[in-house]
Design a protein that fits this description.
about 450 residues; alpha+beta; 22 helices
C-alpha cells in the first residue's frame, strides 16, 4: 500500500446552478413554496404588490397610531401570507372554532362555556377582538377567569391564535419558538413602529447591538404569520393548478404563464442604500453583499424558469396546433429532442421544464408530457401519433356492434383502409393501455 497525489479535472454544479435546476423542475405550487422559503431566508428580498390604504374605524381613532405601523410593515411581510397559502396544499374542512374546541376537549368542564365563547368570537384572521370584561359579563363569570382561559387557548395551534392585537400575536409566535426572551421579542415589544418604517439603525442604537444582528432578527420577525386564522377561512383550492394557460384568440392559440398568486420579488432598496452607506463596516458590508448577490441570482433563475416554460409551451402549441383545433385525432408525433433543437437548448432542459407541469387548454387540463408522443408511419410517408391512433381505436370500439365485436384483425383492416399500417401486437398493446377487453370478452 502506498500514498500518491494526482491532479484531475471534474465537473460539478455550483449551488446557484443547482438552485436554477430545482426551480426549473418545480411545478407552480412547488415554485410558490420555494419563493416563500427564499423570502424568509433572505431578508434583502421583498415582494412587489399594491396595498390599499385602510382607515381606522370611527370608534377606534384613539388607537389608530398603534395599527398604522402594521399596515406599513405588511408591505414587506405580506409574503408570509403567500407562504401560508403555498404550504397549505390541502384545505381544512374544519373551522377555526372547531379546531380550538377539539384541542380543548380535555380542559375542565367549567371552562368549556368560556372556551366556546372565545372560539366563537374569533374573527376570520384568528384574532380575539372582544374585551374580556364584556365576555365575562355575558357569561356571568369573573374577568380573571376569562383571562386565564384565554391564556391557555393562546398556547394552542395555530400559533398566535386568539391574540388581541398584532404585537401580542407576534410575541405568542416567538414564544412558541422559544424566543420569548430573545432580541426579536424585545424589538416587537418596544420598537414595532421603527420596524414598520425600516428604521433598523435606530433600533440597533436603542438595543445596543450591531446592525447585522438586528437584520437577522428582522428576518425572523417578518417570517411570522400576522393572520393565524388564514388556513381555516374555508377557501377552496384547485386539486390541479396549471402552469400554463392556452387561450384561443381570433382563431389562433396563445400561451400565457399562470402567475396568479405567484409573488413578484425584488431587492429591497433600503438594503442597497445601506450597503453604500456602511462601506466602512466590513462585517455588515460582506453580509449584505452576499445576501444581495444570492437574491439577484434567485430572481434571475425564477425569470429563467418562467421564460423557458413559456417557450416550451409555445413550441408545443405550434407543433400540436391540430390537437388544439380538432382534438386528439390531430395529435402529431413529437419528441423532446425535436423541441430542444427548435429552442436551441439541451434536451435535459426540456425534460426538466415539462416534468410535473400541466397546461390548461380549451379542451381540458393536460400534462405537458402528454404532448410528447411517438408515431407510426402511414402509407403516404407521414407519421401519426400514438395518441391519435388510440383515439381512433377507442372510437372504432365504441361504434362496433355489441353482439358482434370486431377482432384485432378486422380493426387492423379498418386502420389499413385509412392508410395506417399498424402491427397486430402494437394494436393489442394500445388496446390494453386503453383498458379495452379482447373481442370474446366484449361480446354481450
Amino acid at each position: 500500500m502506498q500514498l500518491s497525489a494526482q491532479l484531475s479535472q471534474k465537473q460539478f454544479l455550483s449551488l446557484q446552478m443547482q438552485q436554477g435546476l430545482e426551480l426549473l423542475h418545480a411545478p407552480i405550487m412547488e415554485l410558490r413554496r420555494l419563493i416563500a422559503s427564499e423570502l424568509v431566508a433572505n431578508p434583502v428580498l421583498e415582494e412587489e404588490f399594491f396595498l390599499e390604504p385602510t382607515l381606522p374605524e370611527k370608534n377606534d381613532t384613539a388607537n389608530s397610531h398603534e395599527e398604522t405601523p402594521w399596515s406599513e410593515l405588511a408591505l414587506h411581510t405580506d409574503h408570509t401570507e403567500r407562504k401560508q397559502q403555498f404550504l397549505e396544499s390541502r384545505p381544512s374542512h374544519l373551522t377555526l372554532a372547531e379546531i380550538i374546541q377539539a384541542q380543548t376537549a380535555s380542559f375542565l368542564e367549567k371552562d368549556q362555556p368560556i372556551i366556546k365563547a372565545i372560539a366563537g368570537n374569533l374573527d376570520e384572521w384568528g384574532y380575539f377582538r372582544t374585551s374580556c370584561s364584556e365576555l365575562a359579563a355575558s357569561l356571568h363569570v369573573t374577568e380573571q377567569e376569562v383571562e386565564v382561559v384565554l391564556g391557555k387557548i393562546q398556547q394552542l395551534d395555530p400559533p398566535g391564535v386568539a391574540a388581541r392585537d398584532l404585537k401580542e400575536c407576534l410575541l405568542i409566535q416567538l414564544k412558541h419558538q422559544g424566543r420569548e426572551n430573545g432580541l426579536a421579542s424585545r424589538i416587537v415589544s418596544h420598537y414595532l413602529g421603527q420596524l414598520a418604517r425600516h428604521h433598523y439603525e435606530e433600533i440597533a442604537q436603542h438595543v445596543r447591538v450591531p446592525l447585522s444582528e438586528v437584520l437577522k432578527e428582522v428576518a425572523i420577525i417578518t417570517a411570522l404569520e400576522p393572520h393565524p386564522g388564514r388556513p381555516y377561512m374555508g377557501s377552496e383550492e384547485q386539486s390541479i393548478v396549471p402552469d400554463l394557460i392556452v387561450i384561443e384568440d381570433e382563431g389562433s392559440f396563445v400561451v400565457h404563464l399562470n402567475d396568479e398568486g405567484l409573488p413578484r420579488i425584488r431587492i429591497n432598496d433600503d438594503y442597497k442604500e445601506m450597503l453604500a452607506s456602511y462601506a466602512h463596516n466590513k462585517e455588515l458590508r460582506d453580509y449584505l453583499r452576499d445576501k444581495i448577490r444570492l437574491g439577484k441570482s434567485f430572481i434571475h433563475h425564477v425569470d429563467q424558469r418562467q421564460s423557458t416554460l413559456v417557450a416550451v409551451g409555445r413550441e408545443i402549441v405550434n407543433l400540436q396546433n391540430d390537437f388544439f383545433r380538432y382534438g386528439t385525432y390531430g395529435m402529431h408525433p413529437m419528441t423532446m429532442a425535436q423541441v430542444a433543437k427548435n429552442l436551441k437548448v439541451h434536451m435535459t432542459t426540456i425534460s426538466r421544464a415539462v416534468a410535473g407541469k400541466t397546461i390548461d387548454t380549451p379542451r381540458g387540463i393536460y400534462s405537458l408530457k402528454y404532448f410528447f408522443t411517438s408515431g407510426i408511419e402511414q402509407e403516404n410517408g407521414k407519421q401519426i401519433s400514438s395518441e391519435a391512433i388510440k383515439a381512433l381505436l377507442k372510437k372504432i370500439i365504441e361504434e362496433e356492434s355489441k353482439q358482434k365485436p370486431l377482432s384485432d384483425q378486422k380493426i387492423m383492416a379498418l386502420f389499413k383502409d385509412k392508410g395506417i399500417d399498424i402491427a397486430r401486437r402494437t394494436l393489442a398493446h394500445y388496446r390494453e393501455q386503453l383498458g379495452i377487453l379482447p373481442k370474446n370478452l366484449r361480446k354481450r
